[in-house]
Amino acid sequence: MALQGKGFLFDLDGTLVDSLAVVEYCWCLFGKEQGISDDEIKNYIHGKPALESLRHFMPTATEEEITTKFRWLEHLEATETAGIVALPGAVELLNRLNQLAIPWAIVTSGTVPIATARLHAAGLPEPKHWVTFEKVKRGKPAPDPFLLGAELLGLAPQQCMAVEDAPAGIHSALTAGCQVIAVHAPEGMPRRDEISLIIHSLQQLNIENNSSTGSFTLSVD
C-alpha cells in the first residue's frame, strides 16, 4: 500500500521513543500517594495531557493543589530519563526526512521540559517545530495539537501523515483530518477502520520524494 503526503507529524512517547517504564514509574509513584492502583493509573494516562489525568484522579482537589502536583510530576518526568531509548527505525526515519527536506514536527502531550529531555536522552534529531502541552488549549484527544502541527508545517491536515501509538492521539489526528499511521492499533479500538496504515515498527516505512508534485510516497515493507 502506498500513501501520498507532504509532511509528517509524530507523537513522541511510544512512537519515537520508548519511555514506557519511566512514564509508568513516575505516575505509579503519584498513584501510591493517592491510593490509586497501578492498573488504574496505567489504563488511563497514556496519550493524554498530564493535567487531564490529574483532574481525573484528583476530582476534589483545588486548581492550586493540581498545579502543585503537576509541577512535581513534571520535574520528576523531566529528570527520570535513564533507560529512555529511540524506538527501532526512529533515528533513521527522521534523518531520512531531513535528507529529503520533508517537513516534520513532533506533536506531544508532554511539556517542553519533559519532551526535550526525552528527545535528547534518546538521541533523536531536533525538530524544527514542536507542539507541546503549553501550545494548545485542548490536548489530545481533541484535534487541536495536530491542527497546530499542520499549520506550523504550512500544510493542510490532509497533506500530513500523523504517526501515533495511543488511542487518544489517534483520535486527535483523525479528527484533525490527517492521514494516520498507527504503530499498533488494537482490535476493537474505536475508529480503527479510519486509520490509513497500521504498522508494527517504523523500520517498515519507505519514503521517496516525488519531485514533480512536491510530495512524497510512503510504502511499507
TrEMBL record:
Keywords: Hydrolase, Metal-binding. The keyword Membrane does not apply. Its EC number is 3.-.-.-. It is an enzyme of class 3 (hydrolase). Pfam families: Hydrolase. Signal peptide: none annotated. It comes from the Bacteria. InterPro entries: HAD-like_sf, HAD-like_SPP, HAD-SF_hydro_IA, HAD_sf, PGP-like_dom2. GO terms for molecular function: metal ion binding; sn-glycerol 3-phosphatase activity; sugar-phosphatase activity. This is Putative phosphatase. It comes from Moellerella wisconsensis ATCC 35017.
